[in-house]
Write a structure and sequence with these properties.
Distance between the termini: 17 Å
CATH architecture of the largest domain: 3-Layer(bba) Sandwich
Strand order of the largest sheet: 1-8-7-3-4-5-6-2
Number of strands: 8
CATH class of the largest domain: Alpha Beta
CATH topology of the largest domain: Glucose Oxidase, domain 1
Length: 251
């Protein structure tokens, strides 16, 4: 058994197999062959598709967890329609001669860097929102579907999780989330808490643990890798004896 630690978000206990999510990295064509009008139109069509998807998330989240958390997706829609963001994408297309996909990637990099350089932790966390909306536009442009790899119940592990990815997950199979990076100030954290998903962020966890059993103690932020059955039972019994909420799922 090995032990790693991080920062817990939900005070629960869960056990399951680890499944590592590796987000696709699109490689779009660079130049637009002097068809900047066509590329601009493609961007705006993809922008509207993304806005409709975000509105669907807003409606669903409002029904399931309330207006406060659902407003995350209103904010994302507003970011997608923000004049500075839109004009930056259009400028790259028209002045640099690049494709809509490449222009979105360049705009994302520019805005994310600006947010990441800010002093406020809250504002730095907004870089994730820019990444999220830009990835959604890219998927609309390239015809990609968001697929999270859970053929069976598992604890999902990734470098980070985007707010819209939480909504895309099959929560019937999702036992918990482990983020190698992440922030307690992020919109993803708000969604995880609202949907009561056991989660720990800022964890050093190599990919060699793919498929191994993990026990997440989200009271302390401790993750037990390949735990002994006695350790699982001891931890579960201790929290149950203290009247703490325990959600325990083992494969």
């Amino acid at each position: 058994m090995q032990v790693v630690t991080g920062k817990p978000i939900m005070q629960q206990i869960v056990a399951g197999r680890l499944c590592f999510y590796r987000r696709p990295s699109p490689s779009p064509q660079l130049y637009n062959d002097d068809n900047w009008r066509g590329e601009t139109s493609r961007f705006h069509r993809a922008q509207q598709i993304a806005i409709r998807e975000l509105n669907d998330f807003y409606i669903r989240a409002r029904e399931e967890v309330g207006e406060t958390v659902a407003s995350i997706f209103k904010i994302h829609s507003m970011l997608l329609e923000d004049r500075n963001y839109v004009e930056t994408v259009r400028s790259f297309i028209q002045n640099k001669g690049v494709t809509a996909e490449y222009a979105v990637q360049m705009a994302e990099g520019s805005f994310s860097s600006a947010f990441s350089a800010m002093d406020s932790p809250y504002m730095r966390a907004r870089a994730v929102d820019i990444h999220d909306i830009s990835q959604r536009v890219l998927r609309a442009l390239m015809g990609d579907r968001q697929e999270l790899p859970m053929a069976e119940p598992a604890i999902l592990v990734a470098d980070s999780f985007l707010p819209s990815e939480v909504m895309d997950m099959d929560q019937r199979r999702l036992l918990g989330l482990i983020s190698l990076n992440g922030s307690l100030d992020s919109h993803t954290s708000m969604l995880v808490q609202a949907y009561r998903i056991p989660a720990i962020v800022d964890v050093r966890l190599p990919a060699k643990w793919e498929g191994h059993l993990a026990l997440m103690d989200c009271f302390t932020g401790t993750i037990y890798l390949d735990p002994e059955p006695a350790q699982q039972n001891k931890l579960r019994e201790r929290y149950q004896a203290n009247g703490c909420p325990v959600q325990y799922a083992a494969p």
